[in-house]
Write a sequence for this structure.
């Protein structure tokens, strides 16, 4: 992965202009990760994908975050500052996209894998025709087994 120069940022902007947010994120990562083909980019786990986006953001704009949100109940706007380092959990890792994980609690065992952008896109596309598809479809895509 590498930082983008001004021309590359402009090209990414133009290419992603009429694309959904998810597709724009993948276009941005593909430009910064020429060592990965588009299929490999789409198969990154959400964590690995977002870590790359966060790294690009730091390279392009620095680590300071100026945030705003609006309360859904009263409508009041809240502003706060933060650092990208507060969001980072671990280093970018390609390996996590293919791994399976185990979780055991109170005698129950769940075997799962991390979601990818491809799976989110598939569920979003299916939800266009069936509004009842949602988080259950995502869970079905990542759960390998439950005992």
């Amino acid at each position: 992965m590498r930082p983008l120069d001004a021309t590359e940022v402009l090209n990414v902007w133009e290419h992603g202009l009429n694309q959904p947010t998810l597709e724009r994120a993948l276009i941005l990562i593909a430009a910064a990760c020429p060592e990965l083909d588009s299929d490999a980019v789409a198969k990154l786990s959400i964590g690995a994908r977002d870590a790359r986006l966060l790294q690009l953001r730091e390279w392009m704009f620095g680590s300071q975050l100026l945030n705003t949100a609006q309360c859904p109940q009263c409508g009041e706007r809240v502003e706060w500052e933060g650092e990208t380092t507060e969001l980072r959990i671990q280093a970018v890792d390609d390996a996590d996209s293919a791994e399976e994980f185990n979780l055991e609690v109170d005698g129950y065992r769940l075997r799962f894998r991390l979601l990818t952008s491809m799976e989110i896109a598939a569920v979003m596309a299916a939800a266009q025709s069936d509004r009842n598809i949602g988080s259950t479809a995502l869970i079905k895509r990542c759960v390998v087994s439950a005992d």
Remarks:
- Helices lie at 6-16, 21-32, 38-42, 46-61, 117-129, 135-142.
